[in-house]
Amino acid sequence: MRKINGRIMTVMLFSAAILFLAAITISGSIFSDEAMITDFSRKNLAPSLQYLFGTDWLGRDMFIRTLTGLSMSIKIGLLAAFASSIIALALGIISATMGKTADAIVTWIIDLVMGIPHILLLILISYAFGKGFKGVVIGVALTHWTSLARVIRSEVLQLKEATYIKAAQKLGVSKFEIAWKHMFPHLFSQFLVGLILMFPHAILHEASITFLGFGLSPEQPAIGIILSESMKYLAMGRWWLAVFPGLLLVGTVILFDVAGESLRKLLDPSSAHK
Amino acid sequence: MILLIIAVSVASFVLISVSPIDPLQANIGQAALGSMSAEQIEKLQAYWGVGTPAYQRFFSWAADFFRGDMGISLLYRQPVADVIKVKLANSLYLMTIAWLISGIIGFIMGIIAGINKGRFIDKAIKGYSLLIASTPAFWLALVLLMVFAVWLQILPIGLSVPIGVEASGVTFADKIQHAILPAVTLSITGISNITLHTREKMIEIMESDYVLFSRARGESTYNIIKNHGIRNVMLPAITLQFGSISEIFGGSVLVEQIFSYPGLGQAAVTAGLGSDVPLLLGITVISAVFVFGGNLIANILYGIIDPRIRRGGKLS
Q1: Of A125, A138, A201, B269, which is the most exposed, with the fewest CB atoms less than 10 Å away?
Q2: Same structural domain for residues B44 and B122?
Q3: Which among A116, A207, A227 has CB closest to B8?
Q4: What is the pLDDT of residues A64-75, one digit of tens each?
Q5: Complex ipTM, two decimals?
């Protein structure tokens, strides 16, 4: 019997994770209307085969509500992480290539953003933009770029000193061509992995900030809202309202982590053939 | 560092002042606002500083701040310094406990996992850390709350002191009992980072030439860890732990909210939801001071523990 080699295993793991996440996102969007349906004939039901996650005090099906909430969180996470990684890319490259002053300024901004605890900064930013959807996306985008920007900065600084880049310069290759042909392929994998590994953080922070009441409005079935509502019903023994949505959230975050890590393994030349 | 703190205060002030949220609406509500006379509304607007331009407010706030006066909290109707002092004392001992516990346990677990690389215990510790890293702190807090306070009913469900007892009647044991759940939650979430980091470093060290050499000389595993392992792992671990103050702060915001623990984090949330600008600013600046202070201490400690850096510092 042939053993499946590690690389194929990783590819399979990666695709499975992505597929599953896509399934959550899409099914959540499809069921978004159903998540709002209230039916008082079935309120406060414990989990059963018909209602996997039980129902809440308005008779809403928690399974569908959780799916919708998660797909909302994933979408926000994707949007915010994407914006954030663009900021990281731009600032990282600027600080590495535009001379000492630019470098000092960017490093200083990074220190500044890292100096305020993430949650507090998120509260401030989402407050500044009037809470709601916009506040969350901008808040998460503005707080998550720092570490990726550092990685890109040091990566570009190293590349500038690399022999093959120096050789290309001596051969008279234009700056643009060096950047596109020699630097970009090297940076891209780092960037992509950094981007994917940013998703779980973005989702977690989106959930936290919504949970605290600075994020999405209470009418939307976001995962943070579901959990903060469930808090009121904990003392009455409605444990399913908190446990299952939370578990699914943890699962989603882990899946993103798995996807990012396996992509890193695939793209990183030193472990690509293990 | 002082420059950074000034920048933090300016940045947070700008963020607050561009906010479209009307403090009157947020606190009094549309209905009550409608039934008030224009005179009353004007008075309230002056109280919440609606009419004054932002830069003017900032300079008067900053000038007072340097004199040690952080203004008066609009919600608590007490000087911000007093509010923060009380809340900080509550939070601080919660955070210190969590910080120490997570640091020590994380460090030990990292070392154990590192020297047993690939064995069952390593896999268990690594799996645990990865799982916790993906778990939101507030959900963990909810689950713990449910298990210990609602089902088993052995620990209180919230607050930092028992309800209905006078301040003088609160015993130390009461305080401890109320701090257990939040502190445990914070510790559990704080552990994973330091564990994973220590584990990586430990693996690196165990594969190094000098460990191989001391093995060949016949040193026991315990001695190798004591003499070669811990010393080298200590440095990055300490830096990381001091750098993680920001995360513990963030975690405490969520955890305090869930356990209704009257700490700094809860005050920040209340201030944010209620548009209490002076309080929110005060908390932001104070927490930034702690974070920067932590980084500074990490740098200094680095020099004390590692003589190479100390000497290097003197030369330059």
Answers
A1: A138
A2: no
A3: A116
A4: 777 887 888 888
A5: 0.71
